[in-house]
Amino acid sequence: MDFENDAVCEKxxxxxDLVFQNDxxxxxxxxxxxxxxxxxxxxxxxxxxxxxxxxxxxxxxVYEYAHKTIFNKKMENPKSIHCISIVKxxxxxxxxxxxxxxxxxxxxxxxxNNKLNIxxxxxxxxxxxxxxxxxxxxxxxxxxxxxxxxxxxxxxTYELGLxxxxxxxxxxxxxxxxxxxxxxxxxxxLLKYEPRITEKFIRKHIGDYSGYSHRQYVLYKLLETNxxxxxxxxxxxxxxxxxxxxxTSKQIATADQLIHILLPTGQTVHNEIQMKSxxxxxxxxAQDLEMCNELTNMYGYREAFQCHRRAVLKFIxxxxxxxxxxxxxxxxxxxxxxxxxxxxxxxxxxxxxxxRSSEGGRGELHRKWCQTFLGFQYRGDDSAAIA
Length: 387
Known about the structure:
Blueprint: H1 2-22, E1 28-32, E2 45-48, E3 51-55, H2 59-76, H3 87-96, H4 101-112, H5 118-131, H6 136-146, H7 156-169, H8 174-186, H9 194-204, H10 209-225, H11 238-248, H12 255-262, H13 272-299, H14 303-323, H15 350-359, H16 364-374
Parallel strand pairs: 1-3
Antiparallel strand pairs: 2-3
Organism: Pseudolycoriella hygida
GO molecular function, one term: protein prenyltransferase activity
Protein name: Protein prenyltransferase alpha subunit repeat-containing protein 1-B
């Protein structure tokens, strides 16, 4: 019976290997759930329109046979592990269970010994991710492969698209978002497109906080790299202007007026590009506050909306203090916190005082959060503040 099973498994592995050889446009792999072999004369390998499927009744047998073959070869002759004939077994083993680091390490050795083609390896890892979009080993392997390729010859937009497809397929896909962060560090010019892409993702997956977390990362990265997206003059900083007017009861309408409010002591410290980047990021932050309000009105209270709103508020306050060179005072559990209360903190920092007053009307728990993480101080009469 073992010999018969081994023969069947070998046949299935050869069929899968033939698909890889003949279909250069193969893009997905899936295990098709089938409790038993319903037709013994039919192959469990299904290949249609650049998609590969394997019936689930045979996956355990195929995986165990591939696993056994790989390790037997390694035990009998360590040099045989560098032989190209082992690849077909590796392919099947990884497709069925991509979380075994040993299999990926064997592929690395084969690649270093010029047994594997880098283009085909990128293609194979993307096929693996089509089946298991949270495979951290597959993402790690792709990053390792990039070390052998010039950055100028890399299609970074494809890599971002792959991350997006994986995040779409599986919620809280932090391996995919971490890989996306890595790509953006390698190609920072793509950062300017991220606000629109992440907003689209958030509106599509309102409960998936990994998208919000990535958007927060993008905000800080945009401010750090001074990347600004060109905007039409008619809609330039419109969200930020509306936000500042709402909390300060002013009627500002231009970028110069915004700078006067948001950079009261920092205008002489920063150059024009830095100030534009600051306003651009603050505009995105103001847009996010409005987006959270909009999503709450549409879907009701969600923890993700509240957490993202607070993260954006923290970004706004930290950026204001950083760009205005506000000194840290007091002894607080968090770093870079300035105590702000209406009785003593005014003058050039009117924006922070107005924000403190505005946020004070969102309830006692929110005021405690603002006090702990933003340095806002509230007195008893502040409980009547209007948001």
